[in-house]
Design a protein that fits this description.
The protein is α/β, with parallel strands linked by helices and 314 residues long. It is built from 10 helices and 11 strands. The strands form 2 sheets. Strands 3, 4, 5, 6, 7, 8, 9, 10 and 11 form a 9-stranded mixed β-sheet that branches. The protein has a two-stranded antiparallel ribbon with strand order 1-2. Strand 3 (93-99), helix 5 (100-117) and strand 4 (122-128) form a beta-alpha-beta unit.
Length: 314
């Protein structure tokens, strides 16, 4: 067997045929004829001196050799695609990854305004559920990301802080007409947990000095802030929310803040991107714009506490 690599077109035909278990569907995907796929597969079989596909009636099966070859071929084409996508960012489209709740509650409207005010600066947003915010620029097709974190990022990343996470209880507007709110009433309320580990409520209660008075047992559990806040708005209980992300809903009467004290969680939202990634100037313009949007926001009038400023519950 020759040590040289087989033709790229033959490897592409092999990967498509293996994925579809069909030469004809591979041909349709690659916009070539079925006989061309067959010729490409024969080229590989001659190159490796072994069979790659076995037919059992109408069923197309991979040989043992093909099963050994396929993972590396797929990984190789994935790496090529990621490398090419890196250069495509120069075409005017920035590909961004962001948490789902931030996307719906804040980011989507800002990116729409950014495109309107700066034509030609298109941002393609991918909203993703992330229990712990993370992006791998080496293996994911993104130019930038908005992440919630403590600010410790790789040294070769550009980092722009957007705003702090401010935890605050949120509920339906009707809750404001039923005063007062105190520890006893909160303990009797149905708590909605936007994270399975209940960390947001735990942090808020600890800072408020209410951990011993309000139990975290029971209550509905969700996997995003968004779902918790939607359930709260519909009157199913009180959820933990983020002050900046609920500001517009509070102003428009869709949500209320039954206990108007926000707690600084210690985490912040950052816009990050690799310094070596093309499109750096456009990314800096986007960062400047998003930071300006934060500064222009009118937040509800609430008390804000840091974790080291814990107070006794009222």
């Amino acid at each position: 067997m020759s040590n040289r690599l087989p033709p790229l077109y033959a490897l592409r035909a092999f990967e498509a045929a293996a994925r579809h278990s069909s030469f004809s569907r591979a041909a349709d995907e690659l916009s070539i004829t079925q006989s061309a796929v067959s010729r490409h597969i024969r080229t590989l079989e001659e190159h490796f001196a072994c069979r790659l596909f076995l037919r059992n009636g109408r069923t197309l099966q991979l040989s043992e050799a093909a099963r050994l070859l396929l993972p590396g071929v797929r990984e190789g084409f994935g790496a090529l695609e990621r490398a090419c996508n890196t250069l495509r960012s120069e075409e005017g489209v920035l590909r961004m990854k962001a948490p789902s709740t931030l996307t719906m509650r804040w980011l989507l409207a800002r990116l729409s305004r950014f495109r309107h005010l700066q034509p030609g600066n298109e941002v393609q947003l991918t909203s993703a559920w992330m229990d712990v915010d993370h992006v791998d620029f080496n293996h994911e097709p993104f130019d930038c990301a908005v992440l919630l974190g403590d600010g410790h990022f790789p040294p070769d990343w550009e980092v722009r802080r957007l705003f702090a996470e401010l935890l605050i209880p949120v509920g339906a507007p009707a809750l404001l007409s039923e005063q007062p709110w105190d520890a006893a009433r909160l303990a009797a309320c149905e708590l909605l947990h936007p994270t399975p580990d209940k960390r947001d409520w735990r942090s808020w209660l600890a800072c408020m000095g209410l951990s011993e008075q309000v139990s975290l047992k029971g209550g509905q559990v969700f996997d995003t802030l968004e779902l918790g806040m939607i359930a709260a708005a519909r009157g199913y209980g009180v959820s933990m929310g983020d002050l900046l992300m609920v500001a517009e809903d509070v102003a428009q009467g869709r949500l209320s803040l039954p206990w108007p004290t926000a707690v600084v969680s210690g985490l912040d939202y950052f816009l990050v991107w690799p310094r070596t990634r093309p499109g750096g100037e456009r990314l800096r313009r986007l960062a400047d714009f998003l930071q300006g949007e934060v500064q222009a926001m009118a937040l509800p009038d609430v008390k804000i506490l840091k974790a080291n400023e814990a107070i006794l519950g009222e």
